[in-house]
Amino acid sequence: MGSVPRRGELTSSLEDNEVVFDGIEAGALEGILSLLDRDGRLGTRFRVSRDDSRFLKIFSQGFAVPSPVLSVVIPFHNESGNILPLLAEVEVELTAYARVGTRFEVVAVDDASTDSTAQELQEAQTRWPWVRVVRHVQRLGLSGAQRNGIRRARAPWILTMDGDGQNDPADGPRLCEIAWGLGGPEPRVVVAGLRIRRRDTLAKRLASRSANAVRRLLLRDKCPDTGCGLKLFPRESYLELPFFKGLHRFMPALFRLYGHEILFTPVNDRLRVRGVSKSDFLGRALQSLADLVGVVWLIRRTPPPERGNEEGSSCP
Question: Is residue 45 a contact partner of residue 62, using CB atoms and an 8 Å limit?
Fold first, then answer.
């Protein structure tokens, strides 16, 4: 039995989709809803009734919001103009996919943008209840933005994509279908996009091919396109990986190292129609080379994955 609340003390209980507050008047409904809706998922679909002078009861029209099965993590840095069209596409493609429907969320990470990205993300949150926003005060880069978005994600599966609109959200359901298959989700499978027809500049394509060739030679990760932003993987598995700046370039190699099967599937690569590329070819090449040396060392020093089996009976 719980303790009896004092008169005027705000207490709450949730039972059978009914929230009961003692010691508060109906005029405080807005404050009550803010308590219920701390993560922005419930919206304002509530109706209020009074049984007597003591209790205010709030009944939700579908209060039991199911947990998301998929979290889409999208880092943004100065991508004003791309955000709302991209999120609209995500909604269309995922709601039409039966395995997901409305059970998804988007974790948008504003990586210290200096344009109107923050305002557009605020507008997105007012338009779509499934949009969550993480904002950085200082820029952390793509790997850091992905990391913080994934740490805050609530779904067991993560779909990453770039915020520039070049990844096609229509490919997302296909990655999910490959990973989950007909028999349900397989927890140790990673599906990565493979851009067959690159829509980048010639210089960017040549730089990417050279980097991929060197990486495959040294890491033997069998990954033809590590730079594609479209990837699907279990959240828990990602959080097992060692983190460093530039991790996003080596995720297939590290997932394989940690015992995952890596599958690749062709995906659409679109032209950037708004904004400018953030790539610094020379700086990225030098940093990637330094990271590659570190990852080679890490792979050689990491033993094969062995999680062990718990033995003995559970405690009474």
Answer: yes
